[in-house]
């Protein structure tokens, strides 16, 4: 499948939720009828309906930005009725007067097509419900299929090179032709066309009834049962469990390289289907388990450990399943309040990057047992190149990475510089002759509209600068690739700082509230080796000059990186060894409890 989404739920046999294009084209059909009446010209009405009809016959997958009108009940049957009804009204009311018998027969045909589309859709939806296909999967062998569930087989397409919905929609061409001929005074042909359409409609509905009707003798797939069997055969020892709002998929994406590197049997469990669209880089078996029952079905006894990149309410649905040990791994390490939440008390272990994160938990003293904390490094940083001291000051054009965070869910968690300082930071770097790489947080503007507007303004500023300046793409590894290109990072308090320290390159941190330097560094230890940028940006020239020249803070960064990033050595190797150790501890607990 080309799109990462449940095929059955997406197709819905005609219940393809209306989008901007559908609404516009149906509006064009109605406008054509109005103009036809005003101009006393029925051909205008017929021509106005053609684009909507053609769109439904040739319809493909629409871009996500167009699929916005989920509450507009204007699916295929309704679109058919509106456009044909508009043409019928125009033909009936414009000269020359259409013979009543022809017009009446064609009106009945319009209603038959509408009812046939509705019946076909209803039968298809009924069968999808019987298919028991609540779960979706990728990279998992389920009855010979590596991803699914596949589309429900169309009984009409088994016999013809077109599916039932498109055939019924295409039959409307004959209906419009019949209206045109009737309006032109042709007596026999409209009747013949109408009879052909009626036969097509009856044939399609009868075929669907035999295949999908409420009677025995037709096989029903139980793909959910097959998914559970496939997972049991896989016997995963490690589960990456993920749940979040629709725009939070990036939090799983940062773990894609680690998931792919695991040699032990691993299963990625998603709770919301929307996240499949952002997991293209994950190559391991992935299952969407929407309900608690689905979740239990894909958690066989082989599962030893469950890893959680996010801290959301739905995590407790997994934690209450007995057997595995549970570990919060997060999706970044920073001085933000979310990095040491008291909610983490519910996990058996909490994995952090380095000693600095353990110190944060100890400082807030929220009742979390420090013995469950383990410094395991940041495996995602394995491909970040470490700058050598002798490479500094070589005279090349400076490249600055501006990678601010978002404004958070509430004011206390708002560390973002985008709305208040972002444009001035970028303009200052450009005026100094540097290239700027702009990598905004995916959620920028989620809470504060002014942050979204500022992001758009910065986007425009960077794109117009040209040269080596660019807006960094939102792909999973784009941030780390930008780390390797940049000479200087300008960011806010966030995990970006911690990760960038793996490069040992200079960095600057925004201090938009102008907290005194000593107090700011005490509050946010990750900034201790940074140049601090107050709201007036007076320190920006110093940060740029230091990055291009002497780099006086390099020794501080070396010490801070070790404190923040954890054990030395290849971070991926270190992390995979921690996985092995955690599984061993889970096995020991099961043995002690008498479950093995």
TrEMBL record:
<dbReference type="GO" id="GO:0047355">
    <property type="term" value="F:CDP-glycerol glycerophosphotransferase activity"/>
</dbReference>
<dbReference type="InterPro" id="IPR043148">
    <property type="entry name" value="TagF_C"/>
</dbReference>
<keyword id="KW-0472">Membrane</keyword>
<protein>
    <recommendedName>
        <fullName>Glycosyl transferase</fullName>
    </recommendedName>
</protein>
<feature type="transmembrane region" description="Helical">
    <location>
        <begin position="103"/>
        <end position="125"/>
    </location>
</feature>
<dbReference type="Pfam" id="PF04464">
    <property type="entry name" value="Glyphos_transf"/>
</dbReference>
<feature type="transmembrane region" description="Helical">
    <location>
        <begin position="167"/>
        <end position="185"/>
    </location>
</feature>
<keyword id="KW-1133">Transmembrane helix</keyword>
<dbReference type="InterPro" id="IPR007554">
    <property type="entry name" value="Glycerophosphate_synth"/>
</dbReference>
<feature type="transmembrane region" description="Helical">
    <location>
        <begin position="20"/>
        <end position="38"/>
    </location>
</feature>
<keyword id="KW-0812">Transmembrane</keyword>
<feature type="transmembrane region" description="Helical">
    <location>
        <begin position="191"/>
        <end position="212"/>
    </location>
</feature>
<dbReference type="GO" id="GO:0016020">
    <property type="term" value="C:membrane"/>
</dbReference>
């Amino acid at each position: 499948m080309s799109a990462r989404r449940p095929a059955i739920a997406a197709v819905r046999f005609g219940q393809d939720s209306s989008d901007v294009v559908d609404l516009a084209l149906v509006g064009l059909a109605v406008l054509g009828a109005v103009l036809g009446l005003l101009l006393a010209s029925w051909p205008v009405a017929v021509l106005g309906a053609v684009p909507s009809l053609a769109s439904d016959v040739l319809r493909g997958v629409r871009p996500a930005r167009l699929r916005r009108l989920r509450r507009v009940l204007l699916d295929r049957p309704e679109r058919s009725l509106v456009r044909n009804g508009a043409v019928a009204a125009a033909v009936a009311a414009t000269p020359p007067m259409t013979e009543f018998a022809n017009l009446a027969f064609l009106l009945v045909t319009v209603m038959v097509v509408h009812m046939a589309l509705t019946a076909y859709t209803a039968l298809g939806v009924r069968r999808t419900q019987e298919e028991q296909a609540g779960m979706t999967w990728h990279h998992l062998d389920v009855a010979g299929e590596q991803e699914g569930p596949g589309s429900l087989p169309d009984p009409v397409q088994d016999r013809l090179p077109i599916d039932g919905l498109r055939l019924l929609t295409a039959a409307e061409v004959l209906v419009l032709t019949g209206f045109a001929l009737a309006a032109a005074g042709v007596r026999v042909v409209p009747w013949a066309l109408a009879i052909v359409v009626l036969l097509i409609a009856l044939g399609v509905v009868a075929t669907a009834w035999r295949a999908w009707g409420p009677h025995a003798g037709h096989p029903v797939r139980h793909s959910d049962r097959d998914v559970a069997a496939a997972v049991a055969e896989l016997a995963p020892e490690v589960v990456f469990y993920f749940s979040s709002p629709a725009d939070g998929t990036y939090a799983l994406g940062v773990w894609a390289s680690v998931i792919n590197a695991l040699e032990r049997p691993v299963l990625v469990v998603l709770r919301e289907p929307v996240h499949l669209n952002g997991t293209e880089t994950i190559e391991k078996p992935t299952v969407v388990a929407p309900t608690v029952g689905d979740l239990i079905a894909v958690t066989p006894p082989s599962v030893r450990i469950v890893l959680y990149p996010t801290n959301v309410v739905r995590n407790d649905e997994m934690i209450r399943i007995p057997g595995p040990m549970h570990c919060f791994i997060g999706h970044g390490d920073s001085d933000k309040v979310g990095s040491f939440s008291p909610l983490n008390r519910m996990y058996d272990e909490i994995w952090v990057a380095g000693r600095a994160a353990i110190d944060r938990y100890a400082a807030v003293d929220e009742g979390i047992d420090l013995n469950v904390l383990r410094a395991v490094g940041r495996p995602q940083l394995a491909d970040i190149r470490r700058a050598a001291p002798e490479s500094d000051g070589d005279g090349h054009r400076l490249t600055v990475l501006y990678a601010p965070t978002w404004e958070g869910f509430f004011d206390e968690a708002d560390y973002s510089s985008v709305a208040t300082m972002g444009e001035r930071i970028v303009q200052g770097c450009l005026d100094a002759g540097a290239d700027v790489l702009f990598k905004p947080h995916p959620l920028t503007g989620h809470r504060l509209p002014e942050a979204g507007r500022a992001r758009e303004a910065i986007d425009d500023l960077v794109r117009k600068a040209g040269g080596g300046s660019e807006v960094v793409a939102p792909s999973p590894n784009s941030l780390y690739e930008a780390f390797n290109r940049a000479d200087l990072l300008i960011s806010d308090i966030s995990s970006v700082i911690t990760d960038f320290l793996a490069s040992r390159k200079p960095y600057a941190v925004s201090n938009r509230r102008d907290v005194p330097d000593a107090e700011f560094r005490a509050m946010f230890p990750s900034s201790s080796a940074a140049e601090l940028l107050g709201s007036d940006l007076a320190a920006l020239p110093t940060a740029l000059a230091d990055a291009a020249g002497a780099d006086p803070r390099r020794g501080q960064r070396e010490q801070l990186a070790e404190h923040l990033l954890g054990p030395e050595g290849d971070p991926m190797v270190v992390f995979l060894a921690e996985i092995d150790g955690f599984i061993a501890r889970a096995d020991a607990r099961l043995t002690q409890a008498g479950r093995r």
